[in-house]
Design a protein that fits this description.
- This protein is mainly beta.
- Helices cover 0% and strands 27% of the residues.
- It starts with a strand and ends in a 38-residue tail after the last strand.
């Protein structure tokens, strides 16, 4: 199932949701990968077009990585030379 990114206020951490079910009529049931404290009904989100992905390889060794592929440790970006999309 696809990943959705919820649009949040500038400066806030983004909220990532993974679609678990499509009950129909433009409705989905999701699993939140972060706290949903600031989430409200009708908030806009963007479909990533793909499933949850986590990087692998030599660059990830020694890092603590969130379920959504972002580093949790304070060691900096996992792929420092890769441009953000």
């Amino acid at each position: 199932m696809n990943v959705l990114e919820v649009e949040v206020a500038e400066g806030s951490e983004h909220l990532v949701l993974e679609v678990a079910q499509h009950p129909g009529e433009n409705t989905v049931r999701t699993i939140a990968m972060e706290s949903t404290d600031s989430l409200v009904r009708g908030q806009k989100c963007v479909d990533s077009g793909g499933p949850t992905q986590v990087p692998v390889g030599q660059e990830t060794l020694g890092h603590i990585i969130k379920m959504i592929g972002e580093p949790m440790d304070k060691k900096g970006p996992i792929f420092p030379n890769k441009e953000t999309e």
